[in-house]
Design brief:
86% of the residues lie in helices and 0% in strands. By secondary structure, it is an all-alpha fold. The protein is elongated and about 60 Å long.
Length: 87
Amino acid sequence: MANIKSQIKRNRQNLKRRELNRIFRGSARTALRNARKAIDSGDIKEARAATQIATKALDKAASKGVIHKNKAARQKSRLMQRLNNIG
């Protein structure tokens, strides 16, 4: 355990940030997984809705700095390609 005041505060901040990052990263991963599952099922309407949710989650995670913006763009692009291939 740190004895220095600034390090104690830094540890508190890191814990808070870690929890928030886990929430945004986890929701993006879950949305991505659900979108892929919907696309694989073949139901276009459901796939479009799930892809829209995944896109929003990825954008939010990228804007918060949880994932890199290029990673979010790459994942969205691949998701859209899969969506367009079923239609």
